[in-house]
Amino acid sequence: MYRINIDNLEVYAYHGVLKEEKTLGQKFLISAEVILNNSSTSYDDNIEKSVNYVDICKLIDKVTVENKFNLIETLAETLAERILLEYYKIKSVKVKVSKPSAPIPLPLDRVSVQVERSWHTVYVSIGSNMGDKQQYLNGAIKSIAENPLCRVIAISDFISTKPVGTVPQDDFLNACICVQTLYSPHEFLDLLHNIENKAGRKRTIKWGPRTLDLDIILFDDLILSDGILTIPHSEMSNRLFVLEPLVQIAPYVIHPVYKCTALELYYRLKR
User: Fold this and answer.
1) How far apart (Å, rounded) are the C-alpha atoms in residues 80 and 192?
2) 22 given a catalytic annotation
3) Contact, 30 vs 83, CB < 8 A?
4) What DSSP line would sit under 209-270, residue for residue?
5) How far is CA 63 from the centre of its chain?
6) pLDDT digits (tens, 9 = 90+) for 178-229
7) Active-site entry in 19, 89, 91, 99
8) Model confidence over 52-105: pLDDT tens digits?
9) Per-position b or e across 138-163, b if 16+ CB within 10 A of its CB
């Protein structure tokens, strides 16, 4: 990975809470630090493998001029998101927006805010054991792929598995997908719940039948448990129907708690 830095690009625009700021405008200084996935560009001397910083500057100028926000925080967030969505090679970005002429009746150089956004890699276990199972799984994958803040990177085979628990029910169809997303963990969880709800998911019986089940298994190397969401998924190391499709698409992804690969967890459970 390597970085491209753009320092204090000057843009005249119309952001601010005051009426005068929206009508008269003022100068903004915008800096961006982008991190690219490809580390071989400098050796190849090939612009096609990089991102043209001129194009990034033009995008920053366009977004800043064509919008009018009350908060420079909103401008910074918007710029970061647009940069990441526009350029597939960019993994993460820091954007700093400075306001040299901020209307503050005190001596100061400038007011600024900085945001950092990045693509997150998420592994999602998907399953269904009601109705047209394959259609439910394909529909969920399609819904995620069509979300502008998500990219479906890999899809495992669909496998048939026996249900867990004592509730009489049909066999499951399970799979695992790898997704890149700009959402936070809780935002991504909300997205999955919305997709489940649209598929008619009912949460009435624990480990009961369901039209669609979407679980976050891993989210980057995050370790989280806050009463709403637990990452890594607490049962992933005990579930072959989770590990088998995960190993198909990411055998060497590391479990951040156990410090071993998905493949190792799979073989341990098989034994």
Assistant:
1) 24
2) no
3) no
4) --S-EEEEEEETT--EESSS-EES-TTGGG-HHHHHHHHHH-TTPEETTTTEEHHHHHHHHH
5) 22
6) 999 999 999 999 999 999 999 886 665 565 577 899 999 999 999 999 989 9
7) 99
8) 999 999 999 999 999 999 999 999 999 999 999 999 899 999 999 999 988 888
9) ebbbebbeebebbbbbebbebbebeb
